[in-house]
Design goal:
The structure is a single chain. This protein is mostly beta strands and about 130 residues long. The chain has a domain at about 30-115: Thrombin, subunit H (Beta Barrel), CATH 2.40.10. It has one helix and seven strands. The termini are far apart.
């Protein structure tokens, strides 16, 4: 870096990200209740009712005390979740893309939303509907 002061060069090195950002959409801090259930028969059945930490158009991050999440796990996610019989619930098929152990026995879980499951009405392509 010819012609640049050592201070400016040092600042450029410290502000350059050392990793590639994989997110396509910005995340919003949003705390909404959600329901998570495994979608594969090989995984032990459970129903987790965490609250989201943040969300984007194609992903959700939440905290859980459950240790049985793993990278690549497929799950059904209802977000936001109010009750089992609420017609406004929106369910998704998602994949766990990151699980990080946190303090106090909790785990941070990042999901990538793959597909919307809409059982009530026809919708845009990519939705599964019942007729």
């Amino acid at each position: 870096m010819e012609g640049i002061s050592p201070l400016v060069a040092a600042m450029a090195e410290t502000t350059t990200p050392k990793y590639t950002e994989l997110r396509r959409n910005r995340r919003a801090k949003i705390a909404k209740p959600m329901r998570v259930r495994p979608s594969e028969p090989r995984d032990e059945h459970f129903e987790d009712l965490p609250v989201s930490v943040n969300a984007s158009k194609d992903g959700i991050y939440f905290l859980s005390r459950r240790s049985n999440y793993y990278k690549g796990m497929r799950v059904f996610v209802t977000f936001p979740f109010t009750s089992n019989h609420d017609p406004m619930n929106c369910e998704y098929v998602a994949e766990v893309v990151r699980v990080e152990p946190l303090q106090n026995g909790k785990f941070g879980v990042a999901l990538s939303l793959k597909m919307t499951l809409n059982y009530n009405a026809p919708g845009p392509p990519g939705r599964i509907t019942r007729t």
